[in-house]
Amino acid sequence: MKLSFKILLTLTLVITVVFGQHLKDVEIEVKVNDLLRQMTFAEKVGQMTLFSGTNKRYEQMIREGKIGSLLNVIGMEENNRIQKIAIEESRLGIPLVIGLDVIHGYRTIFPIPLAASASWDTVLIRRAAEIAAKEAASAGIHWTFAPMVDIARDARWGRIAEGAGEDPFLGSAVSRAQVLGFQGEDLADPLTLLACAKHYVGYGAAEGGRDYNTVDFSERTLREIYLPSFRAAVDAGVGTLMSAFNEIGGVPASANQFTLRNILKEEWGFDGFVVSDWNSIGELVAHGIAKDRLEAGVKGLTAGIDMDMEGRCYTTDMEALVADGTLLEELIDDAVRRILRMKFKLGLFEHSYIDENLQKGLILHQDHIQTALELARESIVLLKNEDGVLPLNRKELNTIALIGPLADDKDAPLGTWRCEGKREDVITVYEGLKNKFGNDVKIIYAKGCDVKNNSRSEFNKALKAARKADIVVMVMGESADMSGEAASRANLNLPGVQAELINAIAETKKPVVLVLMNGRPLTLSNVESKVTAIVESWHLGIQHGNAVADVLTGDYNPSGKLTVTFPRSAGQIPIYYNHKNTGRPGDPDTKFSSKYIDLPSSPLYPFGYGLSYTKFKYSDIKVLNNRLLSTDELVVSANVKNTGKRAGDEVVQLYIRDIVGSVTRPVKELKGFQRVALEAGEQKTVQFRVSVQELSFYDSDMKYTVEPGNFSVMIGGNSVEVLTTDFKVVSLK
Ligand code: GLC
User: Fold this and answer.
1) Residue located nearest, by CA, to atom 3 of ligand 1
2) Residue 5: what pLDDT?
3) Which range marks the domain in which residue 645 is found?
4) Which of 519, 546, 572 is the last residue before a domain boundary?
5) What is the whole-number distance in angstroms between the Cα of residue 242 and the centre of ligand 1?
6) Considering its fold, how many domains does the chain have in total?
7) In angstroms, what is the span from residue 278 Cα to ligand 1's centroid?
8) Which of 537, 501, 493 is nearest to 518 (CA)?
9) Whether residue 663 sits in one domain with residue 567
10) What are the strands, taking DSSP E only, across 43-102?
């Protein structure tokens, strides 16, 4: 086919698709405005109201058009029943949108998001979100309150478990992957979900890591650290956002016109709708910026919240305020338009009921379980491995002592926000090891202690098991309820008497492999030196045990890398890799420098860190051109060689540093990453191409720009061990 014809054909295709989509959007706008014109004031605020569950009173309110959406309505029969009331028994028959917290799986439960982010595998993360959407949508759910994209630098905050860690670049990549996974190509596809990026914004910066607490940071920090992952979600086409509980420098996020209207709706052009978090509008009264729910409702609506979750603040009491000019009806109309727009995009008017055959064979499909295993394996981070104790050598092994309160626990692997996950679907570590070893290796199991309480009554049984074994595997950490919402911890040590048990077992001089199950970074300084190996396995979902067994035996070579810093002590928090240099950078040998007198300032394990069963050697970092204009592209590469005896995946990371700016800049910032598979002895040249525009930041005038000057560029397998070279950005003037 001649080239010119090919180009013509491609162009025609692109124009048809784009024009076709535009036509569809115009069609939807016409329908939205047609419907809006017919609505009473009560029906308008009804569309802006979201309640949890169903009951006779809500059913009557649905008939009267006073509820437009529900959450936590489980099961397709119930969903179809309640939808029927909305469509057949209300005046305008506007369908409900039904939401649920499908955070890391519906029934096939995947690793918690903090674990999954440690895979740095956005393709697999997207696949998991697609599967979650299929299973949930087939059960009648239209909308998930995910992805949670809050950046978190404070491990005391329990909701660090729900996000992708501390870095805005990685957080943005994961945010995009999840939105695309949940929403698919077309929201009208019955097996996709409307996504909801949350909690807008800054929720992870709660003072003291205490959930719901005060947040106060500069606009520069807001824009450079906490907004990018939301912008990535909006650019990926996310249909909704959820506003947060916290205040931001005196203005609650759920009444913050600057973040909601100026930035989100005007600067970014977001055309979906914003839902409040649970009663976060009503809580403006507790925050002390509204005297009652009516004033709270006016503040929430004026700021840009389109739908009120369980706040009971958007009511017909507002009609009098519209009449006396206190409140613009246009604000209400805009909110209703946004909500109706999403309902049309979801195809709810055409396909209002879920086809009850859709779910057949979908839930817990073998492919879903396989994906859960793959993501679980890639989420595991090897933190320590002395004397090559791992992988376990099955030929030399006769007896393993398997000890710890989480070794045979079916609940913890499901983690926080487990949706419809069930314990009976979980493979525990004990079951995973039995699946792996069969009768080849004897496993003596002893719980040893509980997660939280201080009983030492089973220590002796555990010690006896250890003495009989060649090696001890201890599975310790946090139960699922110790992370997630309203689960902040002031102390990040292993809870209860777990550390004591580890120390007691270490006295037997047997090699100890510590397998952690946790929803946040823990402080391990009191046990780290007592164990031979540490495997960070988080809460990995239903395939937890098989994934851990695959890693312990070397059937899978661990490749995970931390997406959040592990402190030595909670006293170091906040601690994160992309920190500023300060005027007195910490130096252990310089008294008057930024450091502690009782602890090294460095973390126990840094951002980006993770070991493998093989070794990777980095060499020969170089830039293609070390003098760049702001319109150029930085092209930088390094050689990565697998110098070990077995194949392995390595997450190669790219960092930059802007040496001098009109404001202080971080000592390093992640600007790229690539998972690279290398056979034993194989070397690859890994190249990164970064537009110089991606080095922009908010300068001293809050202008988003690239400033000419010197830069360092670093490539490595974590944020500390890197090769460095430099380049210059020059200006045309
Ligand atoms: C909760 C959470 C939010 C969740 C919502 C609905 O309070 O903050 O993340 O989506 O309520 O369950």
Assistant:
1) 277
2) 81
3) 616-729
4) 572
5) 9
6) 2
7) 6
8) 537
9) no
10) 49-52, 69-71, 97-100
